[in-house]
Amino acid sequence: MAPRTLLIEADGGARGNPGPAGYGAVVRDSATGEVLAERSEAIGIATNNVAEYRGLIAGLTAAAELTADEVEVRMDSKLVVEQMSGRWQIKHPGLRPLAAEAARLVGRFTAVRFEWIPRDRNTHADALANAAMDAAAAAGTTTPAVEPPRVVEPPRTLSGPQPTGGGAATTAARAEAPGADLTTAPVSWEPRPSFTATRLILVRHGETEYTEQGRYSGRGDVALSPKGQAQVRATAARVAALAPDAAAVVSSPLSRCTATAEAIAAAIGEVPVRRDDDLIECDFGAWEGRTFAEVREQWAGELDAWLASTRVAPPDGESFAEVAVRCARVTERLCAAYPGQTVILVSHVSPIKLMLRDALAASDAFLHRLYLDAAGISIFDRWPDGGLAVRSVNDTAHLAEV
């Protein structure tokens, strides 16, 4: 069945900026242009930008209620379009909670596209917004609009930062990923012959200086620290004992992973090491090499939006939804290439978390609650019929003496 795509036109404004404010939003069938929903409201005293964000939120909410799969958002607010697309920073503290709320709603759809349009192409939403502003002015409102809801950042433990999105965008990544959807694997207690499963052993690389310092470590090629090297030796021995007949070791191209992979291959003996770009860490863009505190100080709004939805990317970076797509590609490729065999994957926090999330058919909340140690080992089996069994998560017993 083709995805249901709806079009949102949204606008907002204030008489005086700040002044009596209101918003308007229209939801249309993208194929026919038929109006399916209208939303408008006077919101008291507010700025143009606050009203524009409120219009966007109303439109996204209406589209979700209409069970849209994909959404096209058109607005004549350059600021909202650029900020929601991740190209502009959200500097004003009053807009950050609104942007985070919009990002959470974005995560409910498989795809959302933002487009700036001139005001003369946004006349329907503009008329609704103006009517709402007139109502606010006629009411003689002199008090500010209700403060937007606060975004409470979920608690998490960091080892280097282990940043994860927390919205409902899991379906977005899965809908775009090729092959079988891991969340729709057959559900059964019936035993499957273990020899027909492909076993994937997921290994996080050893520690680096960034890991120890709690810094975002994405595409930067940071080498293993002395402690990381010791961890890798212990991990190689452990994996060799778990999988003496492994068919292959597949690694992210970054050196902290390739060094880990080569040590594992050497411990097993006579097993090839392959590099796969799809196993590379998330691109953290402008946040690369910075501590969590530094990012919070300089990009508070962008961080809130990113934490709220796996579809939001750091500035100049990559979203977790995009990482999930390539993780699904890896799983499909390796299960097809090595049926009934064991393959060792050496990667990073984000790809491994996303693979485990999908293997367990978990929500994005799982990403906040799972901690992965450097050099930890996780295992899951995949059967030809799509059946899955997660055998272990973040095994670190081999690191007790490191």
TrEMBL record:
Record-level GO cellular component terms: cytoplasm
Chain spans, region Disordered: 139-189
Under SUPFAM superfamilies, the record lists: Phosphoglycerate mutase-like, Ribonuclease H-like
- Composition bias, kind Low complexity: at what positions? 139-162, 169-180
Cite the active-site annotation.
Answer: H205 (tele-phosphohistidine intermediate), E281 (proton donor/acceptor), E281 (proton donor/acceptor)
Pfam families according to UniProt = His_Phos_1 (PF00300), RVT_3 (PF13456)
Q: Give all residue intervals belonging to the RNase H type-1 domain.
A: 2-142
Q: Name one GO molecular function term.
A: RNA-DNA hybrid ribonuclease activity
**Where is substrate bound in this sequence?**
R256
Q: Which PANTHER family match?
A: BROAD-SPECIFICITY PHOSPHATASE YOR283W-RELATED (PTHR48100), GLUCOSYL-3-PHOSPHOGLYCERATE PHOSPHATASE (PTHR48100:SF62)
User: What's the protein name?
Assistant: Bifunctional RNase H/acid phosphatase
Task: Please report the organism this UniProt entry assigns to the protein.
Answer: Micromonospora sonchi
What does UniProt list as this organism's lineage? Bacteria, Bacillati, Actinomycetota, Actinomycetes, Micromonosporales
